Amino acid sequence: MSLIAGRTGDWEVVIGLEVHAQVVSNSKLFSGAATEFGAEPNTQVSFVDAGMPGMLPVINGVCVRQAVLTGLGLNAEINLVSVFDRKNYFYADLPAGYQISQFTRPIVGKGTIVLDLPGGATREVGITRLHLEQDAGKSLHDQHPTKSFIDLNRSGVALMEIVSEPDMRTSEEAGAYLKKLRSILRYLGTCDGNMEEGSMRCDCNVSVRRPGGELGTRCEIKNVNSIRFVMLAIEYEARRQIEIIEDGGTIRQETRLFDSGRGETRSMRSKEDAHDYRYFPDPDLLPLVLSPEFVAEIKAGMPELPDPKKARFVAEYGLSPYDAGVLVGEQENAAFFEAVARGRDAKLAANWVTGDFFGFLNKSGRPIAEAPVSAEALGGLIDLIRDGTISGRLAKEVFEAMWETGKPAAAIVEERGLRQVSDTGAIEASIDGVMAANADKVAEYRSGKDKLFGFFVGQVMKATQGKANPALVNEILKRKLAG
Amino acid sequence: MTMAANLTDLTLAEARDGLVARRFSAIELTDAHVAAVEAGRPLNAFITETPDAARAAAAESDRRIAAGEARPLEGLPLAIKDLFCTAGVPTTAGSHILDGFKPPYESTVTANLWQAGAVMLGKVNLDEFAMGSSNMTSYHGPVENPWRRRGDNRPLTPGGSSGGSAAAVAARMALGATGTDTGGSIRQPAAFCGIVGIKPTYGRCSRWGIVAFASSLDQAGPMARTVRDAAILLREMAGHDPKDSTSVALPVPDFEKTLDQGVKGLRIGIPKEYRIAGTPPEIEALWQQGIAWLKDAGAEPVEVSLPHARFALPTYYIIAPAEASSNLARYDGVRFGLRVPGQTLDEMYENTRAAGFGAEVRRRVLIGTYVLSAGYYDAYYLKAQRVRARIVEDFRNAFEKVDAILTPATPSAAFGLDDKQDDPIAMYLNDVFTVTANLAGLPGLSVPGGLSAEGLPLGLQVLGRAFDEETVLRVGRQIEKAAGFTAKPAMAGGAA
User: Fold this and answer.
1) pLDDT tens digits for A145-182?
2) Selection from B340, B316, B338 nearest residue B328 by Cα
């Protein structure tokens, strides 16, 4: 357990996270309007989204399916009956004056998520609930000196609010939670997890206490939009609370904002100023009733998730938990690895994928689907290493050429004449040439300076432009130098 | 009588048959009604008249009739309650806050009517956001009932909230009208104006495109001069709409077909809790008369008990305002209708809503906000929902024993436009017989039974099982036949 040392002793941080994950769907939660990111303002707005008189919400079945799928991915209870409620408050970007959400009866109940921590350790965090709700529109306050502009494109877009238990104790765990949750959502295809575009946003509930003691008063940090900021915000907030308590003060329950520029949290509103949302069941919508068959059908179609996949990679391919963890983080990466490893040395495949391939990929900033080297092509390279056509050293050069040209490994080896020379006659001839040209060094070697062996290897490789089979060079050179 | 007066005096069914038989043209029929609407302006029934669009629609109807392509409501002029959104035509909900609002869409119910060939004469007046029982809360001023007390020319309320609809139909300005009924807003004005109105089962008509008052109670329905006319209109208005999650996917019967099957063998429930102290003797007498008529026609009256009916009114006045307080939040000055500027967003909200909403709407928004507030929710809203469930249960039990229930429609005849204004509670009592059907989601029909001692119409109410409008209409038709209600209001066909 990681504690924070204060002036008066150690402190334990208690963290719970509420994540708003935008549901992947073509249309909004209760209307047919499109959800595409980055469209011109107010071009993806139906009469329902604009809160026009007489307009009624109709639940989008795709969003329900996505919520159930996510619930199953979080090992959570699926509630066959759930209810949509109205959360009432006035704001210019909330056209109806209420947000349709789920309050007392969410679609998904308790679940769990397993965090992957440094050193291969894991830790389980409880999921309290997942519910469906609409997003609000966007207020733009910087477009006009005295007026605010409203963009309703986001109004009505489906969100899943995923609430964790207060089970995390460090900012690293909070970071690991978000990474794992994002990974699961992406595997399921229920949220793209893109925090920069706002399709995943996080509220952090933070309190501090003496280790194992009574829970402290919590503060909620709203709408943090990157994993790094979540970790920074938690660290700052924990320190702030500890200082207040150690100075004899008490923590006020309040909502705070994270200022990423200054790296600090600031008070937004206190509990006393909190809205009374006057939740009540939305009379425009009937309770959402799911059949067990519907849930079973979704369950049957679920993809393999990161945890079982990691376990399988360790068992099936003999990978280390660390390598397996790196590979399963993104579904596409895992699939790429498996395509490379199929029928090949899996450890060698894992080394190439996590090593050179990820190195070039990260540098290029491209998604894996657009990498110039396909899994098939990387497999081809590995095949050439295995059958001795090229040396591992030359393979790196070949890979770089593959990345630049998009050509298969064999073509590059042929074009550049990189094929490994395993013809003993040719190697012997090179060695003879090198020895003749360096008769003095041969004499020194034979008089006991066997460190010069490396020099001869280097000269032979140079003479063969690196193509000589290193094992054969070693073997023949040793024999010839011995005289 | 002129030909125009003859045409406006026809029932909707007669006009339909006359058009098909080419006894007159749709244009003639529409012109006669347009003239009646103009002549009837002193009643203030219409907020917006659309004579040009009406004539254009009538011309199309004549073309279709000539081509043998007449649709079920071909060429029949109707008045539309100004709570239904009509594409390109101002829709006010009787409120200042919707100033200038022209919906770019058509409500499902009105779209169904135009699809069936009906002709829109215009948009008719109502209590603001359908909140009221007198039509006096309308920003566009009260509607006058075309009826007068015998020997007394003081104006009377047509009832509400569908007062403009009821007055227009009673005064022969339209063959029929749409209404909406949240607590009695079709049935009470129908009774006050001597016409027929039916609130169908919740879910029978789509609510899409109707300005919402209380979503779990609101239901559209027809208002007409005969039970047959109401049946004809209801068939075209009703139907499943995927755009309204609470509309029900059930086939819509041909109500007209089963209308005259009589009531022989039907068991008619008489709820003992509806004998309310203070009910005028003539209301009680009419109720007894109704029971006798049905008995004479072969039905069997059976006393039933609705033990929670006495809690219906307070329950209604918690649930309806609660939903309304949320439904009316969208009238905020941001996107449409009235905006009164302010220094801050909150100030703009306050200025707009203070100027845009009338006293009754403000009262209900306040009540609704209060009953949903933290600390009061359980005691008011949640308790009201529990009572509502008991009321539903009461009716379920009753309908195990009977096929329909007969009650008075209102506790009084139409009152004067100057009465009852100061006491909202007294006004709320108008709904005492009607709200139960809304809380239970059941169909209810108001049919004229006779005249009061002062010469004003009085209505009887028939309640039925969910989605059994057929029986309700059959019973209503039997009462209509027995009552032989032929009295006409003082002002009809625009002729005072």
Assistant:
1) 988 999 999 999 999 999 999 999 999 999 999 999 99
2) B338
Could A286 and B246 be called an inter-chain contact, meaning their C-beta atoms sit closer than 8 Å? yes
Number of compact structural domains in chain B: 1
Pairing of strands A98-101, A85-88: antiparallel
**Chain B closest CA to A111's CA: distance in Å?**
29
The predicted model gives B111-135 an average pLDDT of: 97
A90 contacts in chain B (CB < 8 Å): 329, 332, 346, 349
Q: Which one from B25, B133, B161, B162 is the annotated catalytic residue?
A: B161
Residue A263 has pLDDT above 50, yes or no: yes
Q: What angle do CA B423, B424, B430 make, to 5 degrees?
A: 105
Which residues in B lie closer than 8 A to residue A52 (C-beta atoms)? 103, 105, 330, 335-336
Residue type, B439: L
Residue A96 C-alpha, separation from nearest chain B C-alpha, in angstroms = 4
User: Which residue, among A63, A35, A24, has the nearest Cα to A285 in the 3D structure?
Assistant: A63
Residue B81 annotated in active site: yes
> What would the DSSP string read from start to end of B113-143?
HHHTT-EEEEEE--SGGG--SSSTT-TT-PP
Least confident of A158-162, A379-383, B219-223: A379-383
Cβ–Cβ gap A53/B98 under 8 Å: yes
The reply to whether residue B330 touches residue A88, judged by beta carbons under 8 angstroms, is no
What one-letter code names the amino acid at A57? P
Distance CA A99, CA A113 (A): 28
Domain of residue B391, residue span:
85-109+128-496
Domain spans of chain A? 4-298, 302-415, 424-482
**Residue with the larger pLDDT of the pair A417 and B68:** B68
- Contact by Cβ (8 Å): A93, A155: yes
- Is B8 within a domain? no
What pLDDT, on a 0 to 100 scale, did the predictor assign at position B420? 60
Domain of B173, CATH number, reads 3.90.1300.10
The Cα diameter of chain B in Å comes to 70
CB atoms within 10 A of CB A145: 5
Chain B nearest CA to A91, separation (Å): 8
Residue-level pLDDT at A468: 83
Mean pLDDT of A268-289: 90
The answer as to whether B446 is a domain residue is yes
| pLDDT tens-digit map of B436-485 | 999 999 999 999 999 999 999 999 999 999 999 999 999 999 999 999 99
Position B44 in a domain: no
The answer to whether the CB atoms of A88 and B207 lie below 8 A apart is no
- pLDDT tens per residue across span B387-422: 999 999 999 999 999 999 999 999 999 999 877 667
> Average pLDDT in the B311-318 region?
96
A438 compared with A129, residue with greater pLDDT? A129
| For range A352-374, the mean pLDDT | 93
CB contact under 8 A, A53 and B212: yes
CA-to-CA dists, residue B266 to A481, B196, B229, B237, angstroms: 120, 21, 23, 27
Q: Which of chain B's residues have a Cβ under 8 Å away from the Cβ of A285?
A: 245-246
Look at domain A424-482 and name its CATH class: mainly alpha
Nearest by CB to A276, from B101, B335, B374: name it.
Answer: B374
Q: What is the token pair recorded at A127?
A: 């999921």
- Residue B311 is which amino acid? F
Mutate to test the interface with B, among A29, A45, A48, A52 (most CBs of B within 10 A): A52
